Structures are given as C-alpha cells and as structure tokens.
Amino acid sequence: MNTSYDPLYLFIGGEWISAEGRATAAVVNPATALEIGRVPLATAGDLDHALAVAQVSFEQWRQTVPDQRAKILKRAADLILERAPHIAEQMTLEEGKPLGESLDEVTRAAEYFEWFAESARRIDGRVVPANRPGVLQMVKRQAIGPVAAFTPWNFPAITPARKLSAALAAGCSVILKPGEESPSTALALARALDDAGLPKGVLQVVFGVPDQVSSHLIASPIIRKVTFTGSVPIGRLLSARAAEGVKPITLELGGHGPVLVFDDADIEKAAVEGVANRFRGTGQVCISSTRFLVQRGAYQRFVDHFVRATLALKIGDGRTPGTQVGPLANPRQLAKMQELVADAVAKGARVLAGGKRLECSGYFFEPTVLADVPMNARVMHEEPFGPIAVLMPFDHLPDGLKEANRLPYGLSAYAFTASARTAIDVADGLEAGMIGINQYRIVATELPFGGVKESGHGSEGGIEGIEHYLTNKFISQA
Questions:
Q1: What is the sign, positive or negative, of the torsion defined by CA atoms of 295, 301, 305, 308?
Q2: I need a surface site. Which of 268, 291, 409, 436 has the fewest CB within 10 A?
Q3: Would you give the distance in Å from CA 144 to the centre of its chain?
Q4: What is the tens place of the pLDDT at every residue in 113-134?
C-alpha cells in the first residue's frame, strides 16, 4: 500500500500552483498526529485571479452544448473510478476513515458525476400559450453564473462531487474551497476533471483561512451563487454574507439524528445496524443517527444488542485491515468528545461502553454509549459529531415524536416498526429532510439530500440538485 502523501497545490486558471511564496498549513495524519504535508494558502491576489478567471470561463462554459458538458463529466467519472484506490489511500491518510469507507466514498463521488452528466442533457424550458394572438411566450433555463462552493473535511470526495457535478452540468464555473484538513481528495477530483477536458478556468480550487476566503469570494459581484456544507453557526454567517449581495445560497448544515424504535420492530436489526450507522466515519457524519429513542417495552433488549455490538467494534488506523472505526479528524473533535462525556456523567448519565480517549499518539476516542442522560446535558442539545450514542426510552408515539422534533435541527431521522400505520404516522410527523424507515441508508445519487429547520435549505442530488444552479428567463415575443 502507498504510504506517501501527494504534493498539494492551488488550482487556478488550469494551472497547478505550488506553495512557493505563500503561507502554508499543516496536513496531519489523525491516526498518528504526524504532519504529512503542507497545503498552500491562497493570497488575496490568488482569490482575485480565481474570480477573474471564473468570470471569463463562465461565458465560454455556459455556451458549451449540453452533450459536450455531459461527455466531460462522464469522462471525469471514469477517471475517478480508475484512480479510486489511490484517491482512497490519500483520503485515509489525511482524514482517518477506514480504507473501505474511503473507497466507497470515492466510488459514490464518481456516481454523482455520472448522474449529473445525464442531467446536463435534460435541462429544458417550456412554451406557455399566450392569451394574446400573435405572441410567443417561452421560459428558458440558464446557468446562474460563477459559484462559490465551500465543503468540509469529513467527506472530502462526495461533498465536493455533489456540488461540482451539478454546477458544472448546469453550465456554471466554480471556485471550490475544500477543507484544509483533507485537501488531497478534492484536488484529485479537480485533476480528473482537468484530464477529462474541462476547459481551463471553469474550475478553481483554493485553500486558505476560511473566514478570509469566504468573505472575499462572497463579497465579489462575480459570484452569483453560494453553496455550503458545514456547521450551523458558519452557515448562518455565510447566509448573512450572501444576503448582502442578494445571492442565493444552498445550506447543508448539522443535525442530531433521532431514531424511533417501537416495540414491534426487529430490535436486533435496529440496534446492530444502528451501531454501524452511528460509528461510521467515527461518528463525524451529519446524517448519522445520534439519539436512539426506544419504546420502553423493548428498551432493555435494544440496549443489550447495541452495547454488545459497540464493544465488538475494531478501532485503529484506517489503513489496517479490519479496522471499523478510525481516529477523529483533529484535536478539536477529540477535546469536544471528552467534554461532552464528562458533562453528561457529571449530570448523572451512565457510560455503558467507551467514554475515554485511547492511550496512543493519534486522535482516537472509544465508541461511546450513554444512557440516562439528563435533558440539561450538552449532548442532548449539541450535535456530537463524534463516536457518542445516546439511548433513552419513551412510552407512546406522541412522546417519541415530541423528543425527536425537540431540537432545531432537521436533517435526518429514522424509525423502526412492523406497523404500516405507525410508519406512515412517523414519516408524516418527523421534522427532517431525509427519513429512513426500517433502514439507515437514505443517501443515493438519484435522491435529494438536504434538511429543514436549522439544518439548512435546498437539496443536492436527485433531479432537484441541478435546479439551484439554474435561473428562469421568461421571453415574450410579438
């Protein structure tokens, strides 16, 4: 297996720009806490150059026929799949997730480019019958303009892929700012697009101090659309900045996913698959199940299955065969897990599994199960975004729904029941953008991905994904 880390660059105007003459930031392998590379940070001049190039290239790309755009995106998908083993190794080095998860993510990223390649061919308009004789009325769909896209470190392939594939299919140019902690993966996507024949300047990839980069890009009149995946507080900040320029913004923010498990459900399935879902990506997954609300008659059975499955998880370096849970991405996440557990325990919670940092050099925290957590504990209000699961009982459906909907988040929610009536009532009553009934798999290229309430607005993926990068132009011709 390759253990070296690829050099890092900025990608502006079709050129790969090194760190020479620029400040850099360390990229750290979270399994060892050792530096593996330095990512160049864009200067204000770099950002201005990226904006200028994006503006010029947009005029060319928007006029490129849909079939040609589709061919480039499809070729990029093929290249990503060809290079998937190497991209996955780089992802595991910089982000820490098990190699199998990294490979699966790269494969799914390629699927988004395949999906939106076909979507490029399906952008259409309509003719509207006029109420006046001799008048032709048409509605055209056109690319909105240059896009500023901001993505986090936890899914460094699939999150940029969702945004890039849809925006490029629509005919937009894009300036992408990925997370500085896992930069190599996004650059691999950019290289695939470049090698696939994407015209120079249609895509730029920049890194930098997040607040400085976002304020610089969003304030520019060149940017006509903003898309962001990340935390609720940063989403609010970027939304306010976009509003100053009356720019539309798509937000995919945090969650605190409830799972309602009813007495009549397959309890073992709900618990064992819940463990896999909760601790995938070391719990650093916005749609992950976090609060397991179990009807009282099945509560103890669920707890037993859940704890047993949690204790059986293999923790380690993501490159080690058999590893199921890797390290947290950075020391900040590690410190937060310690704080959340300590706070819950101090207020009366029981630790049924885990609860501690592993004694090693990396950022490892044991998969943790908490029960009897009081409502004033931080973990009952804050998204854990790490390997902590909360178990609690409820009595009746209205009680479970009330707790599930208590928080201001509404990204994902799940329910397990053998009753068709209960499934319908729960699906109708849960306040979430994505709901899984008797399963935890709720993401696919053909499906919209997005939340409600403070978890954001707008959808990525599915037939809805391209809509945010298009505008309607009405033409009335006499």
A1: positive
A2: 268
A3: 23
A4: 999 999 999 999 999 999 999 9
* Domain extent at residue 59: 10-253+455-477
Laid out side by side, the sheet with 368-371 consists of 350-353, 368-371, 388-394, 289-295, 257-261, 412-416, 434-437
**Residue given tokens 């594939």 in the structure block:** 165
pLDDT at 91 over 70: yes
Task: List, in order, residues 6 or more apart from 263 with CB less than 8 Å away.
Answer: 295, 297, 298
| Beta-strand pair 409-410/412-416 | unpaired
Cα distance between residue 337 and residue 349, in whole Å = 15
111 in catalytic set: no
Averaged pLDDT of the chain: 97
Q: How many CB atoms lie within 10 A of CB 253?
A: 26
Burial class from Cβ neighbours inside 10 Å (0-12, 13-18, 19+) for residue 144 reads buried
Closest CA to 48 of 38, 56, 37, 40: 56
CATH code, 328: 3.40.309.10
262 has pLDDT over 60 = yes
For 199-217, the pLDDT digits (tens) are: 999 999 999 999 999 999 9
279 and 145 inside one domain: no
**SS3 state of residue 311:** helix
Is 137 found in the same domain as 265? no
DSSP state of 199: P
For Cα atoms 351, 353, 357, give the angle at the middle one, nearest 5 degrees. Answer: 90
Domain count, the chain: 2
Both structure tokens of 331: 């020391």
Q: At 378, list the tokens.
A: 């931080």
Strand partners, 35: 28
pLDDT for 215-250, tens place per residue? 999 999 999 999 999 999 999 999 999 999 999 999
Give 361's pLDDT tier (boundaries 50, 70, 90): confident
Same domain for 105 and 227, yes or no, is yes
Find the catalytic residue in 111, 252, 273, 454.
252
CB-facing half-sphere around the CA of 227: CA atoms within 13 A: 30
Q: Is 339 a catalytic residue?
A: no
pLDDT (average), residues 364-371: 98
Q: Which residue among 95, 181, 286, 467 is the active-site one?
A: 286
For residue 2, pLDDT over 80 is answered with no
Helix (H) or strand (E) holding 103: helix 99-120
Query: Is the CB of residue 145 less than 8 Å from the CB of residue 224?
Result: yes
Domain assignment present for residue 369? The answer is yes
Q: What is the end-to-end Cα distance of the chain in Å, rounded?
A: 67
pLDDT tens-digit series, residues 149-197? 999 999 999 999 999 999 999 999 999 999 999 999 999 999 999 999 9
- Report the relative pairing of strands 126-128 and 136-143 from DSSP bridges: antiparallel
